[in-house]
Predict the structure.
Amino acid sequence: MMIHVNLHPKRGKKSSGGSGASPLAGAVAGLGETAARVRAAVTDKYLAGAVLAVVVACAAVGYLYTSQTAAEAELVAREDAASRDSARYASLIAAQSKASARRDSLAGQLRVIAAIDSNRYVWAHLLDEMSQALPQYTWLTAVQQTSAPPQPPGSTIDTSTAKGKEAAKARALADTLQQGTRFRLTGHTVDIQALTMFMRDLEASPFVKNVQLARSEAVVTDGKDVTEFTLDAEYQAPIGASGAVRTETITVQVR
């Protein structure tokens, strides 16, 4: 029997582990060859520029895709929020429109009431002024309105017919000629000076203007000689008369 002594331990280890190190050595060699090919390729500047352009283009496409996707997501979110707000405020807008229509209707009714109320006390003031200005031994036999009566607020005339057209023309003429409420007084007096005083006092009234004598003649009434007169006058609103009209505010509690 012979004994072998290994005087080279490293060489022995290499030979014993050679079978396990061969794949690793092949991989390293492959990487080296690849690196060598890359270095050889990089030496061509045109190819390097093309590769760089491709890389930049891919990066730009990726950035644009990402930004456009984010912008689209933001726009979709805003659209959804606007749709929800529109649905939520639709009822409020409808309620506001209904309230505005009701407000306009009430404003129209108030205008009608104000138009009616403005002429409510015209004849009350006129009759009171006539009574106060009437002197002794003078009396009135007739009081009549000579101007066109005011039309109801909001009234309309159907102009599709011939009669309606004539009525519209008559109203237009009346509106043109009418400068207020005009009236005529007919009365008797036993003293011509009393008639002059009556006209002067009527003209001094803050509610009466343009007092004119239309007719005056002597007549016999109940066996007595009297002077029959006819006066034309016009109503005016006492704008500058202090204390002629007193208004008071009325407060009504609504439950």
Remarks:
- Strands lie at 138-145, 182-189, 208-221, 224-235.
- Residues 45-118 form the longest helix (74 residues).
